[in-house]
Amino acid sequence: MKFALWRRSKTAPLPPGSGGLFVIGAPRTGTTTLQNALNHSPEVYLLGEANLHLEVGEPNFAARYNARHDSVSHQKTKSTFCPPILKVDGTCEDYLTKLGQSYKWVGEKIVVNSLHSADWVERLTKYHCERFYKAHYLFTFRHPLATVRSTHDLQRIAGHAPDSVTRLLDNYLVAMQLFLCALRNLSHTRAVFHEEVTPVELQRIGAWLGIDLRDAAAYYNDTRVRTYALEGAGFDADDRARVERVAELYSTFKREARAGFDTPQLEQMDNHLSPQHYTSLGRIDREVRTLRRGMA
């Protein structure tokens, strides 16, 4: 999968003083928990998986969005309900503009899933470059074993056959690949690690956004932030090896994040002859692509 170049061509459809805020991640990496924690603030309104980049210019946005959440029995929260703030149902841009008159931050939670069409990520990047180039982006990550096992648990509860480990790990790597591209090309991008969200980390995120998140820690507890072991997972040898390799990459990725992803713009060539040319972030980028090729 190739990623479109991040380039600015339009401004966000938001009034002065309001900004775009987006939570992005693979399934079961903490996107919903973080979205709910942010929506706890009276200065934030984030829609849940509204697929704004597919809704551009389409009328009757609220009717479609609300019907989709109603169909799975979601209660009406900021994360699941587009309020009737327009006299006539309009486009998603109309709602973002109107919400932006009342909230400091508006946007959505975005879940990256390989069930999407082949051009889904390309359309996503194009949309955000055109309309939200200066927005703030929070990418969620979680230990890959927990991501896979949590997804399988949820699918079994719903009565569905579990997805393959390969496909779930590919989802995970696509989200990481998208983050690396955003980190290097967008002004306000940071990673959030689901199992390490503490009141202190929420305060840091709040300071980054200029909002008060002191009460948001209540959204993180042992039920929403579970840990898992490889034993008892029922993986075959190949799947176990894949999980372990992605977990090793995740450990490196977190270490680089703590260091602040130093010199993200430095590396430009994959085929440079000198090993000293390569950076830690560049190695992560190459490893993601190598792992994805191995799962194709």
Widest sheet: strand order?
2-3-1-4-5
How would you characterize the largest beta sheet?
5 strands, parallel
Strand content: 5-15%
Number of strands: 5
Mass-distribution shape:
globular
Note the total helix count. Answer: 9
**Helix-strand pattern, N to C?**
EHEHHEHEHHEHHH
Secondary-structure-based class equals alpha/beta
- Proportion of residues in helical segments: 40-55%
Mean pLDDT: 90
Termini gap: 11 Å
Radius of gyration, whole Å: 19 Å
Overview of the molecule:
The protein is built from 9 helices and 5 strands, in the order E-H-E-H-H-E-H-E-H-H-E-H-H-H. With 296 residues, it is an alpha/beta fold. The chain has a 5-stranded parallel β-sheet, with helices on both faces. The model is unreliable at 5-11 (pLDDT under 50).
